[in-house]
UniProtKB/TrEMBL annotation:
Residues 29-215 form the Copper-binding protein MbnP-like domain. This is Copper-binding protein MbnP-like domain-containing protein. It comes from the Bacteria.
Length: 240
């Protein structure tokens, strides 16, 4: 009888110890890495030529954009983590990661973020960090930020001449919020999320853009800028 008692006690201690070992930490590290691709290839600046969806030859020289107001959501429980002061300048020749640090543990299944700078932050340019106007992303003649910048040269399919492309998209109307589904993010487990920014999508869906057909290839405001914003609002940045 005594042996049975000690056996049961030992078994209970093992179960208790196992439960303690499996306790979920209160926080976990989340990091986001971004990859830039064009025509199915890794983006390179100042040299390599790529073929746009329209078939036009394009050499990119500058590519920058803002990701802001990052949130993680657990749709089953309603838990949400909102990153404070969430403004990140991403560029091909600079930063391509977002370190969310230690966030509350949860099985997050949605990532929400915006392309651009929200109306409050976009109303002033006396800020620091990634919103420092010296980052070359603030309009130097007016209040507000460029949300996305793409510059380069392309071969005009009509004239065969090389022309410049200047795509500077901003204004509050072109601030777009995106939701992406996540898988594999488990409570207590540090995770790196890989996002792919596909530049082809800037020229596709819902608006097909052929540079050689445009009245101007300096795209900053108006209807054409709105079309680019509609394009980057869906399919431009996706979770791999």
């Amino acid at each position: 009888m005594k042996n049975l008692f000690y056996t049961a006690l030992f078994g209970s201690l093992l179960i208790f110890s196992s439960c303690k070992d499996e306790e979920i930490p209160a926080t976990m590290a989340i990091n986001i890495e971004l990859e830039h691709v064009l025509a199915g290839q890794t983006l390179e600046l100042n040299g390599k030529s790529f073929t746009l969806p329209s078939g036009e030859d394009f050499t990119p020289k500058k590519f920058k954009y803002y990701i802001s107001n990052v949130e993680l959501k657990n749709s089953a429980t309603g838990e949400t983590y909102v990153e404070p002061e969430s403004y990140h300048l991403i560029s091909e020749d600079g930063n391509k990661s977002i370190d969310l640090g230690m966030v509350p543990s949860s099985d997050y299944d949605q990532l929400v973020f915006s392309i651009g700078v929200d109306e409050v932050a976009n109303g002033k340019t006396d800020q620091t960090g990634d919103l420092d106007p010296n980052s070359d992303m603030a309009w130097n003649w007016n209040t507000g930020y460029k949300f996305l910048v793409l510059e380069g040269e392309f071969t005009n399919s009509k004239t065969s001449e090389r022309q410049g492309l200047v795509m500077h998209i901003g204004t509050n109307a072109n601030y777009k919020t995106i939701t992406q589904n996540l898988s594999g993010v488990r409570a207590g487990k540090s995770t790196t999320l890989i996002l792919s920014s596909n530049l082809d999508e800037l020229f596709l869906d819902p608006n097909t853009l052929q540079l050689s057909e445009l009245e101007s290839t300096t795209i900053m405001f108006g209807e054409m800028a709105g079309k680019v914003a509609e394009n980057y609002s869906d399919g431009f940045i996706t979770v791999k």
